[in-house]
Amino acid sequence: MTVADSHRAVEAVWRIESTRLIAALARMVHDLGLAEELAQDALVAALEEWPRKGVPDNPGAWLMQSAKHRAIDQLRRRDTYERKLREVGRDMELRQESADIELDDPIGDDLLRLIFTICHPVLPAEGRLALALRLLGGLTTEEIARAFLVPEPTVGQRIFRAKRTLADKRVRIELPPPDELPARLASVLEIIYLIFNEGYAATAGDDWIRPSLCQEAMRLGRLLAGVMPDEPEAHGLLALMEIQASRIPARTARDGSPILLLDQDRSRWDRLLVRRGLAALGRAEELGTLGPYSLQAAIAACHARALTPEATDWERMTALYRLLSHISPSPIVELNRAVAVGMAHGPARGLEIADSLLDERALRGYPQLPAVRGDLLARLGRAEEAAAEFTRAAELTRNERERALYRARATALKDSAPTETFRTT
């Protein structure tokens, strides 16, 4: 294996394992900043050793073992070594763990602990989200800045202050007491769904989807529903993620290019995930009034229950979006409602809603707004205007697959090729 091959292997393993590695280390050393440093040290060691010795059979475990050895060395050099080891409580265990140690904690879950810790009330909401997207979603500060429409230095400061606050307040990396769980639930749900969305529709890069992030978010969602079985929105979020994830096998062609929802081969949808998602939605409905995630799951279920695109209940979907806009108003909800209304009542009605969002500050730089307008304009026969909108969408997106899709639509419209309806993915 060449040095370049080894480095690619290290990068691939790091993408998959880094969040779980940091979460496990944070639980051990009770210091999020130190956990990141230890993980980075392990990454540097892999970059040095793997080209010479080859990629180990269990690369994730190798990184964990390397980081844990460095954790012991760090603790030994501190005056508070004995106290720290008592807090960690794993001195002999850490010495004896074998190289094939698993990253999973058999009695709990490090990532779920870390998410609840990040959602501690000592942190402001924007700090929680920025830190979660950086550590758990793997986004760069630039990507997070684009998502929140704020300058990149602002995001960097939010992340820095969040980590410093957790350290200064000596917040432990652990699940809070049961009576404190509900107060943090909304933030935890938001973070898990942000992780899922980054996997389902990658913000940037060459891949349209990142299935490993979707799988991790669903795993966390199942754990959360088990920890809080009487919370309707825990089941609602799980339902939403599983129904959406059921489409992943059909969302890309062999070359990785996107296949939009109404073009997908529905026989390739994962019917087990559909059934599980519908069951979770049913549980949410049994437990009480539907919240934002449960309503979005109900909208996704309209697609999941339709065996063909023509069978989709667009009327029900528009009604659900109307309800969602009342309990959780946002420009993005309105944009999605524009798509549903355009399908149920014609593109002119949908365009009216989309046009009303043009001055929304939150949607400036959001590529889906011109993409939706482009589709609705194309369906109205306004090909030149539609092409301009898809060109703008291509300029705004940071995802290469999405950019290629929008450019293809623009070219087709300019060449007066037959247009297709915009399809949610």
What's the structural blueprint in terms of helices and strands?
Elements: H1 3-29, H2 32-53, H3 59-76, H4 81-88, H5 91-96, H6 110-118, H7 125-135, H8 141-148, H9 152-168, H10 181-200, E1 204-205, H11 211-227, H12 232-245, H13 271-287, H14 292-304, H15 314-327, H16 331-345, H17 347-355, H18 368-379, H19 383-396, E2 398-399, H20 400-414
Parallel strand pairs: 1-2
Helix pairs in contact: 1-2, 1-3, 1-6, 2-3, 7-9, 7-10, 8-9, 10-11, 10-12, 11-12, 12-13, 12-14, 13-14, 14-15, 15-16, 16-17, 16-18, 17-18, 18-19, 19-20
Description:
Strands 1-2 form a two-stranded parallel sheet. The protein has four domains: 3-96; 108-176, Winged helix-like DNA-binding domain superfamily/Winged helix DNA-binding domain (Arc Repressor Mutant, subunit A, Orthogonal Bundle), CATH 1.10.10.10; 185-312, no CATH class; 330-425, Alpha Horseshoe (Serine Threonine Protein Phosphatase 5, Tetratricopeptide repeat). Helix 2 (32-53) crosses helix 3 (59-76). It is mainly alpha-helical and 425 residues long. It is globular and about 70 Å long. Helix content is 67%, strand content 1%.
